[in-house]
Each structure stands twice: as C-alpha cells, then as structure tokens.
Specification:
Elements: E1 6-11, H1 15-24, E2 30-33, E3 50-51, H2 60-70, H3 77-97, E4 115-116, E5 126-127, H4 133-147, E6 151-154, E7 157-164, E8 170-177, E9 182-192, H5 213-220, E10 225-226, E11 231-238, H6 251-254, E12 258-260, H7 280-294, E13 299-302, H8 308-314, H9 316-324, E14 334-343, E15 346-348, E16 360-362, E17 367-368, H10 380-396, H11 419-436, H12 443-466, H13 471-492, E18 517-518, H14 520-524
Parallel strand pairs: 1-2, 1-9, 2-6, 9-16, 15-17
Antiparallel strand pairs: 3-5, 4-5, 7-8, 8-9, 10-15, 10-18, 11-14, 12-13, 13-14
Helix pairs in contact: 1-4, 1-10, 2-3, 3-10, 5-13, 11-12, 11-13, 12-13
Pathway: Cofactor biosynthesis; NAD(+) biosynthesis; iminoaspartate from L-aspartate (oxidase route): step 1/1
Protein name: L-aspartate oxidase
Organism: Halomonas aestuarii
Length: about 525
Amino acid sequence: MTDSEHDVLVIGGGVAGLVLALEVADHRRVTLLRPTSDDQGASRWAQGGIAAVLSPQDDIEAHVADTLVAGDGLCDERAVRFTVEQGPAAIEWLLSLGVPFTPDASPDAGYPYHLTREGGHGARRIIHADDATGLAVVETLRQHVDAHPGITLRGDLTAIGLIGDVAGRCRGARCLDTHGRLHELTAEDTVLATGGASGLYRHTTSPQPASGEGMMMAAELGAELMNLEFQQFHPTCLYDPEGPAFLVSEAVRGEGGLLLNAAGERFMPAVDPRAELAPRDVVARAIDAEMQRTGTDHVFLDIRHLGEGAILRHFPTIHAHCASRGLDIVHRPIPVVPAAHYSCGGVSTDLEGATTVPGLHAIGEVACTGLHGANRMASNSLLECLVYARSCGQRLRTARGRADADLVPRHWGTRVVDPEAVATIREEMRQLMSARVAIVRTDRGLDEAARELGVLYQDLALRVREATPSVALSNLWHALRLARLTVASARARRESRGLHYNPDCPVHAEANPHPSRIRLEDLETR
C-alpha cells in the first residue's frame, strides 16, 4: 500500500534523527521512523561524552589539530573545522533542552560542567552525563520529540529500501509494518539516520548494531559511498563470551586506567609515547598484538588505583553493569577485548548532509562527512551527529524537494525464505569479516574474504529474487553487499593508514592521500 505524501521523512531515531526532527519540525511536518530496535542502537550506548571546545584552557585550533592527527592524513580539513567551530553552540543547545550533564563543583573549575579527557585529545574537552551520556541525550531529545505537534513518530514501520524516480531522485522509503505488510511512504525529502556497520562483525560494542542497511539503501539509488575500509574497533569491550556486548568507555583510560597483559604488565608505553591515551587504532592494534603474542583472548583494564570513591563517582554505570555480571572493578581489573565499534566511512555528504542523490540526506554514523578521516577520535561521533543534524535541519527548513517524475517500481517474489538459512548466512558473513577484515588485514585474507563473500552473495541473490519481503532478509541483503564493498575498498588501498592496517603494505603510500569512493555499480561490474 502507498501512504499519503510525507513532507520530511527521517529514517532512524538515535541522536542524529531526533535532533534533525526537532530542527525541522517548527517549519515542516516531520515523519520519524523509530522502531523499538533504535533503543538498542549505538546512540543510547555511547558512554564517554561529546567533544567540544568549552574550557577557557582549550581552543578551536587545538581541537582541529588533534582531530587531524587522529585521522592520519585523510580528514577533510574543511569538515573538521566546520564541526569543531559549531561544537560549543551545539552543546549550549543541548543544555537549553535540559540534558543533565555532570556538573563540576570544584573551586578551580573553569567551566560549570565536568570535562574529561580521552585518547587523542590534548585537553579536557569531553562533556558528559556521568558514564551514560548517550542515554541521557537520547532520553532528553525523545521527550521533546514526543511533545512536538509537528513530529509524527512511527514505531511500527521498518524501512527496507528507498523509493527512487526515473529522474534519479529519492522520493521516500518502502517499509514493512510489524505484521509484514508493505508500505510505500513517498516524501519530498528523505533523511537517513540509520547508524553504521559494526554489525558486519561478530563481536561489537552494541547489543543490536546496524549492519550498514542505510548505506546500501542509498547505494541502491546510486549514492556514492566513501572510506568503507576504515572500520573502528573500540579497544575495550568487556570480555565475556557468555554475555551481551558492553562497552567500557574510553573515559576510563582518560581518567587513568591502565592496560595490562595476562602477566599484569603494562604494554602501551612501549608502543606509543601517549600510552593508554593514544588514538583508538593504535591501542586496538597493540591489544590485538599483545593477545597474539601471549596466546590469550583478552587483556585487562585496571582502575583499582583510582580508589572506590573515584570509580563510583566517574563510572557508576560501568561499575553497576560489571557488578551485575559478577565483576567487582574496585578490586579486580576488567577483562577487555577490541570489538567493532564505529564506521568512519559511509554515504558521502556535504556540510549540510546532502548526498549525491537529489532529495536524499544522510546524518550521523551512516554518513561520511570527512571529519574522521582514517580514524575517528574519541567523542567526536556525538559531536558530528549534533552538528550535521542541525546543519541539515536548517537547510531543510526552507529547501523543498518537490518532484513529479514517475516512481521506479519494485517487484517482489512470493516465496518465504527460511529464517534459519538467513541466520546461517549472516553468521558466516560475520565470521568472515571478523577473521579476514578486522584490525589487521592481509592480501591473502582479503582475497579469501572476497571469494567467500561472493559465494554467499550468489546463494542469497537466488533467494532474494524469488522472496517475499521481510526485515531479516532485507537487512542481510544490504549487509552482505556492503561487506563485499568494504572488502573491495580495503583491497584497493595499497597502504596502511589509520584503521586500515595491512602488513603486506605497511607504510603510507603517499603524502596526500585520497578518500576511497565506491558505488554499488562498481561491485556489480567486477
């Protein structure tokens, strides 16, 4: 069925989608697709905070410089400067909405709220709400969204693809409701806020991570994707093979946490002069190497020396969660392992969130703005969500995407695909990506991944051609093709840079590197 024409359709209800809705809703009607699964997405689980220049001891140039260093030569400096310059105003906007950031009552505080420091930052510039910043921001934004008469919230629909027209414009989204019925929501403007692609991997820091569905929806309409090979692995996910994923914030190291190997020895000082405060790509590779050297499946993050008072004050959520799983972090170090965390690549956009497809915008982790380059610096992610959602929203207040070209139809089969077959292919894909396309890649491993993912693709393509639509099948179809594009991007980058480390080409290839750009048609012609 086709619903009536929508004005601005936003797909995804994390921080980026909620901010965009609030920015636009006083000027245009907004329909926000926010399935219940968004409550388990990356925004809610972002612990550390938001990076912004707030302290009198900090400045814009320092934040810009730190971000460029972390991005390992691949950042778009224009995007970096734009993001950093907009940061303080974005934080003030959140404060005006009532986000309960942690105050700093110390007599020498230069700013009313506590600022912490994380890896890659040369100053304390991370504003936070204890150690559950994402949750606090999402809940505050959600309260304002619920109360706004210009926003229609749809929790019963999940987007499985975008609608295009014969003129090459995005015209909305195809969705399934909770009963599996198809809905076509046409819209003047469509905004993707669907998250990243860490779900391509077996171990992640989010309980229900996105697998790049939004990226592939955009690619199906011809949008350009960029820097897919730069998948960030957070150095410290709680190691518990029997339990759900749980991120141990970078702020733990920012406040003095030490990484220890199985023998209780620090290893980071020998790797990098910044030790535990080195950028995430450096720390994750060092942990991976130490695990391989010692034959262990995790290392330890030790904060016992901080004392119980500081631990409870700074990390109440982490302390409570670990205690619920039988771990007393006041008296025992935390077992940790790197896990897929953040996609630095995604749908290529400009500073206002516009993609290469007219009528389609992308914000948040699904987008690639050029801010992160080859490696995202800690707590620049929520900053990016805020800045680009506000920028995109301000543009969409007045820019309208009216079009009258014929829509491109989509035909479906009638066969119901076995859910077990879908689950099996997904697990095989995730195992391949984790084994061959993770923290360290090799030419041989990438070749094997390309070949084996190709076999899975041929199997799934036959099923999709005859299948009736389902959310699980659609998500896997998007994920598997994005995995293949990711491998293609990694094979094409003949150097090691940032999050992409290949010992077969271990050094930077050129002084002025270029971002990798790829379209779906590039894969289909190989």
